[in-house]
Structures
1.
Amino acid sequence: MGEGIEGDNMPDVLRVVHYLNAFFGGLGGEEEAHTPVSVHPGALGPGRLLEQALAPQGQIVATIVCGDGYFADHEEAVVAQVRAHWQTLKPDVFIAGPAFRAGRYGLACGRLCLEAERRQIPAVTGMHVENPGSDLYRPEHLYIIATEGSAVGMRSALERMAALAIKRGHRQPIGTATDEGFLPRAVRRTVHTGTPAAVRAVDMALKKWRGEPYTSELTVETFEAIPPAPPLHDPSTALVALVTEAGLVRQGNPDRLPAAAATHWASYHVAGMDRLVAGEWDAVHGGYDNTAALQDPNRVVPLDALRELEREGVIGKLLDDVFVTVGNIGSLNAMKRIGAEIAATLVQRGVQAVVLPAT
Amino acid sequence: MGLPTVLATCLYTVATRVGANRIVRGGRFHHPFGAPEKPQAEEYAWRRKFVEQTIRALCTPVQQPTVFDVEEAVLV
Amino acid sequence: MAHDAGAFRLEVGVFPIQRMIFASETRYQDEMLNLDRTALLAAIAEPRVIANVEIHLVHPGESCRLIHVLDTVAPMAKVQGRSTVYPGFFGTTMPAGDGRNHLLRGAAVIVCATFPEPTSGALSPVEAIIDMSGPAAPYCACSDLVNVVLVCHPTPGVTNADFDAALHRAKLKAAGYLARATAALTPPTVETYELSPVDPDLPRVVYVDQLHQQGLMAQTFLYGKHTQGLEPTLLHPNEMLDGALVNGNYRAPARAATYGHTQNFLVQELYRRHGQDVNFLGVVIGRGWQDSQLLKERQGWMMARMARLLGAQIAIMSADVGGTGGNNTIDFMQTIKACEHMGLQTVAVMQESGNPDGSDPTVVDFVPEANALISVGGIGWHTPAAPVVQRVIGGTTVQPSIAEEPRDPSGPLEVECWYGAIWKRAELGLSAVDV
């Protein structure tokens, strides 16, 4: 689709593909949760209301339906099928849900919207802020309209989803989360309020004091739960690696790790070393006083103690290299990438467990 | 990935919030494995004990972010 | 006995400054300061430690860039009263906050220097830059002031600690020297600061100020002494106006400055509204960057109990003159939490982390009790790139990050180290929204 040039490649009526779970799609009866993927021309169930809200700028050309249980059990296969349907249907916009509080439905909507965005298909979904799909997919910057907890809020949810979908389909500028009704999606933008912070602070304090409504200017992202890795069964045979964000580097910082906002990592050979020797290492992380670390780097990366445990057979072997980055004011995206890269390297080298000193 | 990983830090509230599942707590953030106020031999003994605790955490099944306490360093 | 200390009634005679020029004699006239450079040098000289001081004058709108900025100081002097401004650095300390000061409004002393000994880790100065014109200027503190810039060079062999101590003395002496040009003059306006009794039904508000203190290069001084071991204590706002807090923090260029303490944005606002819609009780100060989670939690309670014992009902908080970041945010959040648990309503002013496209988590740490936050947005977000400048003061290379090579400071710059950017954003009314 052409981007940014008015009137170039802009559709007259947006082709919308709608995703519903089998319950809302009216399919499958009692076993509806296990209904496999199906495609239907036009709108189904609440899609009819959605289509009214989309008219005349948008039209639902097809509805994709899948049971929430089936989706959960066959997620990758379902995603592949839906992608194939998009290839045929060529939607201008993809709308999923709304899922309200239904957790599996919300996760399905979120995943499919993410897949759509990755294929440059603008996507909009809707769910309650506490739906697990909200927590998981907001950090992916998806547009998720905030809905009530149940289908009581269907009409208003669909109206806002339609309005946002039209803007996205036409590449029009999108307003703030508050204006458009979507959940904070981990993207912020500077604004000029016209009022100094001190004035706003005292004003807000007085509203809070008086019990009047006010809106906090900062909301906080939640983090997805990471499924815990299973424990080590026998440490005496395990290959253990040391990874740190403390910025402990060879004297002279040969890999030029920055004091903050790191975008890369380094590794240092420690084979044959029984301990880290003061003077051979520097600590460049700009967020902590490195005096103690410089006097004895083992206080940050405990090579001495781990070597003793290795000699005694408490752990099988310590990896020959220590992996280092700087975790000071690190961008989350950069740290995710750094972590993934280090993890991939460790797995490739047969590492079975990691000790991660953090400052 | 499935690599059991133990985070050794004293700032455990940040760690639990971001979802680190095995956290061993102690030291000061300038030196998670250090106790420079102790004499050298005592400090090493403390460090070894702390490292043993991190290995034990690696061997412990967990369902969610879990903080394994080593005894809190004495406040100066 | 005179009983003339502790009334906490401060008069500030304000002398506006539009322009400064070098001249044979220091004189204030018609909003202009003629400055005898030689006399100023003689007043601030520290020959054992500072080999030489360049003195420059810069005005808003000039194509001029200041680099290696360490601190900025409001030019003021006490003309009546037993204490001094910036008490504690030169001789006996009296409680500040009384008497009469003369203040040159529209001007600042700026000190730039490079430390002689190498540093690494947290206790290192970080590059800080002020552009006096161009797209970055509005985001730099003091770009709208007439600045007397002291570029100080260390004598060979001096330690960082000794050099730093001398820099504090030199900048404070300079600030006093400039203001004393007006000592015999009648100020065009006099502002009076006192916390007079007000309607008892007005909510009692305390300003909770978390200070930056980690060690050399990252310090805040209270009455001349660094705050490493500070337990939370109380300040009358006049003590802040009088310079009881002096900045020695060079690792957070966006946030702290002596100027930011004496012209503290929340002190000014609470004073303005004292008796209107608030009863301003005073300021609780404490140091952030406590060394462990336990000490951070303790710090929260120690700050909150002070506010509570004062009888505050509302606590308005900031850290480092509006900046929060790194694990300092934990101390900050613990303080909010403790205040709320002690029954105070809190509002806190914060900056946001995250990268320039705004797509990263906004804060390092958080507590659910922090439900009323004012954001000044994020450093480095949408700060326009700065152009080539004609004049650079303070050094010959800049190194905004230790991961990069030092480079020519006069060229176009895309950096985030604009001096005082946080309190500038607070002043300008910048914030951020979810989009």
2.
Amino acid sequence: MMAPLYEFGRFGDSASLVVAVLLGIAFGWFLEQGGMGNARKLSGQFYFTDLSVLKLMFSAIVTAMLGLFWLSWAGLLDLSRVYVPETFIAPQIVGGLVFGAGFATGGLCPGTSCVAAATGRKDGLALIVGMLAGVFVFGEAFPAIGHFADSTARGAWTLPQAFGLSYGTVVGGVVAVALGAFAGAEWLERRAERPARPMKVVA
Amino acid sequence: MSDVATTAAGQALGTAASSRADAATTTRIRVRRETAPYASPYLAGVGIGVVLLLAFVLMGRGLGASGAFSSVVAAAVNTAAPSHAAGNVFYTRYLSDGAANPLRDWLVLEIIGVVIGGLASAVLAGRMRWTTERGAGITDRRRLANAFVGGTAMGVGAKLARGCTSGLGLTGGATLSVGSWLFVIAAFVGAYAAAPLLRRAWR
């Protein structure tokens, strides 16, 4: 049996919507378990006191990336049928900067705001309303900024293609970067926990 | 040894029971909130990675969040002003082939799942709170305003970039999309640039 199952017609549209709800439930469950429904915990990322966001995101990326790599290597999954988010260089850099500033201000991201709101956090609800307003503002501005938003399109462009390296090499590289990031995150958290050293007075 | 453990457990149960009896006092609630333990971010991250891999294997697509917000906004605009929505490419992209109800969208159902999963996890862990998560330096109203403003910026940023921390960060990260990695790097740059201005909001 070849994956992706939906792509090879193993189940239809109605079943795919049930799959959406089930995967969403599991996604929301793990986000809440990891503390991602709490803006106070999440915002620790931006002050180097709690780097759970980085650890959780990198762990998830590495897990799914290795799974895809091995399944395709074993001939169980056709990678060409897996959706790769398309690249639009300039709007993604500018959009990322704006998004990041909003992330630090709001303390939650779009997905985690849903978990925050579901668990009774009023700030999560306020952030959802803000997101809807932001999407509406963007929609209304689209006739004016759509040209920029659709610029520098590169299609389904991947890191192995960009660097001219093999898939396996890039996968190994991402694992190495993740392990380095984990070590750095643990070091930063230990440093944040340590009480401030009394300042030495130099005569 | 086991006697000691049993006694300690009994005392702990007794304490829990008595704290439940007068749980109305705010101090007790605050203590319980502070001590509710979250799972390791590495474990939660691996869990999300497995969910993401399942999405690839079953559907050939990854997880997302901001796309659901777009479908909701596009549907709302289409209901309020159909001809206005029809004349704007941004909305028509989410309204797709006319016959399809944007609220029967895969991502919208996935996000409904996220709400259910987050809620279930918080209920079982005793982490449900009707509260506003904020630092001690600001009022609830200020925090809600920050969440709204942050959400608006993220709405604009995510639409410009065609995704957020879920659809680009996790899905694009695992599929090694160049634009996704550019977005994540830009988002962290934007967040760390804005964070020093907001330190008071989280202290």
